[in-house]
Amino acid sequence: MEEKHLGTVVVVGSLNIDSVVEVERHPAPGETLLGGDLVKHFGGKGANQAIAAARAGARVGFVGRVGDDADGDAYLRRLAQYGIDTTHIARTKGVATGHAAIAVAADGENTIIVSPGANGRVGVGDLAPLQSLQPGDVLLGSLEVDLDVIAEAARIAAGRGARVVLNLAPYAALPADVLALADPVVVNEHEDELMRAGLGEGSGGGGAEGGAPDAPGSVLVTLGSRGSRWGGIEVPAGAVTTVVDTTGAGDCYCGTLAAALAAGATDADAMQAASTAAAQSVSWVGAQP
Predict the structure, then answer these.
(1) What is the CA radius of gyration of the chain?
(2) In the chain, at which end, N or C, are there fewer CB atoms within 10 A of the end residue's CB?
(3) How far apart are CA 198 and CA 192, in angstroms?
(4) Domain CATH for 177
(5) Positive or negative CA dihedral for 210, 211, 215, 218?
(6) Whole-model pTM?
(7) pLDDT tens string 184-233
(8) Is residue 106 situated within a structural domain?
């Protein structure tokens, strides 16, 4: 009997150092506020998702870039501690590792400004490792690296028979043919509206009868405290006891979802696992535990 292939999650994405300051409230434009002490955390949507997938039990590989700096050294050690394969994370000479400046208000909501650094140097040439993907593997991509890179990664993965999961965050438009490769496209409600509006503009303004614009066949919408919806499946949000920081909750959801799908879980079970993990993630400061 042929041995069943155990799925691997391969993340193509970003690695950032997050500098976090707690504030009573977010400043208005032009306003200066005094905040708390500056605290640094590991972040970046790609790395957040990879660590979430590893914590959920998946075998995880990563394709991306860090700078040739101390932050890059620290990040490679960090990922290795979670058992993530860092073989295909390249070092970019003369460029800093990606960085994010985050303000966290007293109600737990955050604002984020990202300086891509080495993440902006991830190119199509870095995607050669994806040629080893197999059916049962999952490619997980988000949009803090070049969009052409993510599009090509999706095409390579789909061509290899792997499952493609695309998280359209931070939102940017991807070609309709690339979105169609994903199972699922993961978006929040705002991103879902932007995606549908963009596709509608690209196809002349809507569906066959002038209604809602066409969208990919597999779309998972996260609904915050109302849970998540994937086609006809609706799963409630996980129970939250204390909201400390919402940074990275969506990334935790995506990484856990990908891990569950790679392990052969049903869509509903994968959503439930992702909802539970995302709810737990808001109880710590920073995007990663």
Answers:
(1) 19
(2) N
(3) 10
(4) 3.40.1190.20
(5) negative
(6) 0.88
(7) 999 999 999 999 999 875 443 334 344 444 678 899 999 988 999 999 99
(8) no
